[in-house]
């Protein structure tokens, strides 16, 4: 896929997922989540060449300083990835993210090990992760799963699941209403947490 076509696809994904998006121009110049993804793509290409690993890390740190979003250059990210608001997002080195995934601000895709192994999450296609959620370790989050705001997920989920709470409790979506695309996984916050 060509560079400009990829940019257009990213912009359209943001417009599709953010009801506040008013124009292509506004999204292209004003959405730091997109800027972070675009810089990550450059850093990730550099990371794949041994002699460019240090410059890739420096670019990722510049990206963090500029956008408030930290994405390790080793992380693998699919198409149409969108970070809404973005501030405070951390994505670890061995993270793998599928296509059409959306994260809200304050999300951590972190590790639980100091070993040089796969230690960060894998998010399959169409996953939505709510604000402040933490997904830790080499867990796999199944397709079309919603992780609720502030959930702490440390185990695999099946496809079409909802994960809420600390530690996250997982259940399969029960009805057609729950099968609709998740707009805001904050809807899935465990009511017991409100007490």
Describe the overall structure:
The relative contact order is 0.10. Helix 3 packs antiparallel against helix 4 (53-67). The N and C termini lie far apart (49 Å). It is built from 5 helices and 15 strands. The protein is globular and about 40 Å long. Strand 14 and strand 15 form a beta hairpin. The mean pLDDT is 90. It has a 6-stranded mixed beta sheet. With 195 residues, the protein is an alpha/beta fold. It has a domain at 75-195: 3 Solenoid (UDP N-Acetylglucosamine Acyltransferase, domain 1).
Concise synopsis of the structure shown:
With 195 residues, this protein is an alpha/beta fold.
Summary keywords:
alpha/beta, UDP N-Acetylglucosamine Acyltransferase, domain 1, 15 strands, Trimer_LpxA-like_sf, acyltransferase, LbH_SAT, Ser_AcTrfase_N_sf
For this structure, what is the CATH class of the domain at 75-195? Mainly Beta
Helical coverage, percent range: 25-40%
- How is the main sheet built? 6 strands, mixed
What Rg do the Cα atoms give? Answer: 16 Å
What proportion of the residues form beta strands (DSSP E)?
Answer: 15-25%
| Gross morphology | globular
The total of beta strands comes to 15
CATH topology of the domain at 75-195: UDP N-Acetylglucosamine Acyltransferase, domain 1
Order of helices and strands: HHHHEEEEEEEEEEEEEEEH
- What is the terminal-to-terminal distance? 49 Å
Structural class: alpha/beta
The average pLDDT value, as a whole number, equals 90
Strand order in space, largest sheet: 3-6-9-12-14-15
GO molecular function, one term: serine O-acetyltransferase activity
Catalytic activity: L-serine + acetyl-CoA = O-acetyl-L-serine + CoA
Protein name: Serine acetyltransferase
Organism: Enteractinococcus helveticum
